[in-house]
Amino acid sequence: MNVASSDNNFTREPLSQPFGFKGGYLSELWQSEVTFERAGGKKVSGLGTQSVLWSDSSVFTSNTEAGGNSMMFLATVYGAKLAADTDWENPIELLDEILPEVYEYAKKVTMNDKLRLTFALNALVALDNAAWLHYSAEKGVDSFDDMIPNDCKPALSSRHGALAAIPLISYNVSKKKIAGILDDGFFFLKIKIGSDPDGDGDREKMLRWDMARLSEIHEMVGTKSTPHTETGNIPYYLDANGRYDTKERLLRFLDHAEKIGALERIALLEEPFPEEMEIDVSDIPARLAADESAHSADDAEKRMQMGYGAIALKPIAKTTSMSLKIAKLAAEKNVPCFCADLTVNPILVDWNKNFAARLAPLPGMKIGVMETNGHQNYKNWDAMMAAHPCAGADWLKMEEGVFTLTDDFYDKSGGIFSTA
Questions:
Q1: Alpha carbon distance 2, 134 (integer Å)
Q2: 206 CB contacts (<8 Å, ≥6 apart)?
Q3: 225, 257, 55, 291 alpha-carbon torsion, rounded to 10°
Q4: What DSSP assignment string belongs to 121-168?
């Protein structure tokens, strides 16, 4: 299988306010597009959202924001050229073929020999989505269920009628906005920890800030309950983005959580340590999740061996192809997966939603879950939603913190094939 030619483009979407995590702040997110021309002149287009800060914070901090985004887009363009010159049987094979070359190219563009593989994967999301749409069109497939390779189907065999929509509480989200999130019915909170409050890298200040932030939010949640968890409690999903430098410091944070009655609410604690800290975490009294460190299926397996009890799938950040491989492995190891966001555009939300709708529920949950925060962060979110190919569909709406997934959602696969 091959493509006749490829084309690339991007748009810059401003955020409504600075978006803080990993000790840094984003002001915009570039939306990339890769178009493949098929035989006969027919075209398919895949979309991506770039996040240099998430994929490799060292590139973000050592360049201007636009400079880092330009570097990632160059990697996308290079990957598209390789794809147009490559014969492949399926998109997973294509990714396996071009990823090493794109990774080496991205190292040169960023002048960073220690570049994280996730940077290259993030650059290839639009290309990979275009490859899946091209592959599906060639095979006469028009549904996500039929697109899933047979060996991956057991990992994506659920069919949820509802998904918990997980909002994001980043560093600078005010108490007023948190109260609004709770009043709107959201009941599974993703909370960014690992702040650098004075910008000096002091981990003790970070720890004190994190403790105070958790106490503040836990007090606001109070006795609120939900019918969607087995305990009735509102769960917390804490994301440290690798900011904790020692196990001892993390345990001090969790001791604080236990003292205020919040430890039992922590359903997930994502990426507490830098990925180079390959330590056993099985003794930590929380379910640790791997995200950025699980670049590939091999990396995910290594994290599971270290005691990580969940894997964040990010087809919208690490490609659909890589996410299928990771989901298959995790299912074989009986390690739960869930879908995390990258503050992506609406159609990518539904690429994610197709995965989340089919993953087994997290332990303690009665329904599926999916992080989504674009509505909180994009300045032009309403206009972006209006451009969704299924704009107005009931399953696009969040009500009381839940996406209701109707037969129409499954019949249309969230609209992803309508972009082809």
A1: 9
A2: 194, 195, 196, 197, 243
A3: -70
A4: HHHTHHHHHHHHHHHHHHHT--SHHHHS-GGGGGGG----SEEEEE-E
Determine contact, residues 188/233, Cβ cutoff 8 Å: no
Range of the domain at 224: 150-419
Mean pLDDT by 10 residues, the chain (420 residues): 83 93 89 89 93 95 97 98 93 97 98 96 98 95 96 97 94 93 95 92 96 97 95 96 95 98 97 93 97 91 97 96 97 96 96 98 96 94 96 95 97 87
Q: Enumerate the β-bridge partners of residue 313.
A: 339
* Amino acid, single-letter form, for residue 269: L
Q: Are 69 and 90 in contact (CB under 8 A)?
A: no
What CATH number does the domain containing 46 carry?
3.30.390.10
Same domain, 131 and 252: no
CA-based Rg of the chain, rounded to a whole angstrom? 20
DSSP letter assigned to residue 285: S
pLDDT tens-digit readout, 199-220: 899 999 999 999 999 999 999 9
What whole-number distance in Å separates Cα of residue 83 and Cα of residue 192?
Answer: 37
Confidence at residue 102, expressed as pLDDT on a 0 to 100 scale: 98
Tokens of 182: 């709770």
Which tokens in the block code for residue 118? 């996730």
| Element of type H or E holding 289 | strand 288-290
Q: Are 166 and 285 contained in the same domain?
A: yes
| Paired strand residues for 399 | 402
pLDDT tens column, 268-324: 999 999 989 999 999 999 999 999 899 899 999 999 999 999 999 999 999 999 999
* Helix ranges restricted to H, 167-233: 175-183, 203-221
Predicted local confidence at residue 23, as pLDDT: 73
Name the H helices within 224-345: 247-259, 297-305, 315-318, 320-332
pTM (2 decimals)? 0.93
What per-residue confidence (pLDDT) applies to 202? 95
Same domain, 120 and 194: no
Q: One-letter amino acid identity for 356?
A: A
- Residue 38: Cβ within 10 Å count: 18
Which residues on neighbouring strands pair with residue 15, listed in sequence order?
378
Asked if 324 and 199 sit in the same domain, the reply is: yes
Whether residue 98 sits in one domain with residue 195 = no
Position 223: which residue type? T
Q: Under a CB-based contact definition with an 8 Å cutoff, are residues 401 and 180 in contact?
A: no
CATH of the domain at 172: 3.20.20.120
Tokens of 98: 């071009």
